[in-house]
Amino acid sequence: MAIGAGIPFHAYVPFVGQEDSWPMSQRVYYRQLLKAAGQVIHVSNPPYAAWKMQKRNEWMVDNSDALV
Fold this sequence. Notes:
- By secondary structure, this protein is of the alpha+beta class.
- 43% of the residues lie in helices and 18% in strands.
- It is built from 3 helices and 2 strands; from the N terminus they run αβαβα.
- The relative contact order is 0.21.
């Protein structure tokens, strides 16, 4: 994982609050990941819509020099 290896990373999030319906343990871990990210990019506004996941994926690809 990037954090354990000391590799900087950006978090591309489909929309603010995507984790709101997740179990608490997953929300806690997710928020720790976001805190460790060099940058957090929210691609769309809430609420949930399935197409926002694809929009996030396209945004990552279109705005990256390399993906691993």
